[in-house]
Amino acid sequence: MKKNFLFIFLTVLLSLLITAVAAMVTLYGAQSQSTAESLKSDTAIYADLVKNEGYEVLDSIKSFGTTRVTVIDNDGDVLFESDKYSDMKNHLYREEVQAALNGKPSVTSRYSETAKRQMFYYALAVNVGGETFVVRTAAPVSETTQYLMSSEIALGIALVISLVAAYLLCRVMVNRINSKLGEIQASINSISEGNYVPLRADMKDGYLYPMMTGITEVFEKTKRQMDEIKSEKNKSQLLLDNITDGIVAVDGADRIAFINKSGMELFGCDEQVAGKPLIYLFDKNSLECHEKTDGKSEYQYETEDRYYKVTEVNSDSDIKSVYIFTDVTKEKLLIKQKSEFFANASHELKTPLTSIHGMAELLLNKDADEQTHKYAARIFKESDRLNLLIMDMLKLSRLENKNGEFTDEWCDVRGVAEEVADELKEKAEEKQLDVKINGQAMLFIDKKKLYEVISNICSNAVHYNKNGGSIKIDIIDRPSSVTLSVADTGIGIEQKHIPRLCERFYRVDKSHSKSTGGTGLGLAIVKHICSLYDAKLDIQSKPDKGTTVTVVFKKQK
Q1: In the predicted model, is pLDDT for residue 513 greater than 50?
Q2: Which helix (H) or strand (E) holds 295?
Q3: Pairing of strands 307-314, 319-327
Q4: pLDDT digits (tens, 9 = 90+) for 90-114
Q5: What angle do CA 204, 205, 211 make, to 5 degrees?
Q6: Is the separation of the CB atoms in 222 and 239 below 8 Å?
Q7: Best label site of 277, 395, 420, 544, fewest CB within 10 Å?
């Protein structure tokens, strides 16, 4: 408030001072002009007297007032001086004398060595009896100064009165403005505090009324927008707090910008965690990445008794990343129970099935009637199929639980593919299939696992191919990867079935699968091996056109 008053008062004071100085300069100029005109008039009168009656007539004039009159001849000698001075020097080269002699008379001002003060001068040249004389008048500058001094008193009184009036006026204006500013500030504070108090605009406010009205409209619009934002925020907060997934948002500096209620319960913290580094909750770098696509990554996070799937979503906004913690404990435990049951059932079935298989083989080798032999052959075939199924189940169980030995070594991918082709040669020849292998590459991997991948893919390519069809195995060696592609000309698969092909026991056509003797676990085994080596599995197929299965292995760095 004091600063506002001081600023306005100093502005008014400066304006008054500038006005006073301008008035003084104007008065000085006007008085100087008046003195100059008076000198010109007096000089013309005295010049006429000298011209008509001679300069001697000036001696008869008793008083010239404050005006000094001088008559100078053509050589510069002083012939007459109204003020008596003992030492009168030659005046030929005085500025006003030269101006008169040259026919360009003008008023000049200079310090007079004779009179010892600042003087105004004006001179006219006259011709008397063939001789040229210069009639000069002079007036002291002090007359103008005295006039100004008398004016300064009036100006000073007016200035003081103006300053007092300005002070009072400024005080009233500042108090009024500050009062309105206080109302505006109070209204702003009320908006932020949630109890909006509108401004009271009054026509009596004069020039402030339009401004107050405009500000009121802006405040009310702001209030409506803030209410809408608050309502949306409350809805979002209610929604986020009732989501069972934990949600953590971080900014560009990896500091926590938001955490919902489920996230607080998960990490045992409260709202005060906002603004702290993300590592305060968990170390992202310690999480194992399971899947990564553009702008999205998936991890697994474990506590003492819970399992969580962590989905990281990235953006280019102020919120750099959002982490979503989904509790998958039940799913994990269920998968674990299924896997254990899967393994236990496989082990339990293997022993009696071996016995059945062996007894069926004995019955086949004994002499028996045709009906008995037929039943024994059927038992032997089905037990053999069941044995293959159980072997695949045990393989899949070991892969899921990461049991068994892994001996990674440099393997010739083409050599393994040729082994598989040789094993499937008999079945391929039965269907008159043309099998070709192109390319070669070395890959650091467990040879048995590589064999399982190629064998299961190629086995499907044989079983589900058409008679007289073909199988093409392409091996592509790239700087950072090795691609294995197996393309057949078989019956193909509809697009809707492809996402589920790697599920255990999933069959597109059960009757056809049963006739081919497949176990329904081949691609599930392939998928788990690909997962172990972070390889990418892709299946492309069209009905009656064939199927292409592609596996991309990353090379060891």
Answers
A1: no
A2: none
A3: antiparallel
A4: 888 888 888 888 888 888 888 777 7
A5: 140
A6: no
A7: 544
The encoded tokens of residue 358 equal 């062996």
Spatial distance between the Cα atoms of 3 and 178, rounded to a whole number of angstroms: 11
Amino acid occupying residue 215? I
What's the pTM value of the predicted model, to 2 decimals?
0.43
What is the distance, to the nearest Å, from the Cα of residue 440 to the centroid of all Cα atoms in its chain? 50
Task: Tell me if 43 sits within 8 A of 96, measured CB to CB.
Answer: no
Task: Kindly report, residue by residue over 428-470, the tens digit of the pLDDT.
Answer: 888 999 999 999 999 888 888 888 888 888 988 898 898 999 9
* Mean of per-residue pLDDT scores for the chain: 75
* Alpha carbon distance 1, 139 (integer Å): 55
Beta strands in 158-295 (DSSP E): 246-251, 256-259, 288-293
As given in the structure block, the two tokens for residue 419 are 């082994």
pLDDT in tens, 303-313: 877 888 888 88
- The set of long-range contacts for 24-32, using a CB threshold of 8 Å and a minimum separation of 24, is 24/148, 24/151, 24/152, 24/155, 27/147, 27/148, 27/151, 28/144, 28/148, 31/144, 31/147, 31/148, 32/120, 32/144
| CA distance linking residue 169 with residue 450, whole number of Å | 97
* Pairing state between β 536-542 and 68-72: unpaired
- The strand pair at 470-477 and 434-438 is best described as parallel
State the Cα torsion 444-446-451-452 to the nearest 10°. Answer: -130
Q: Tens digits of per-residue pLDDT, 53-62? A: 777 777 777 6
**Helices 2-53 & 142-193, crossing angle to 10 degrees?**
160
Crossing angle of helices 413-423/447-463, nearest 10°? 40
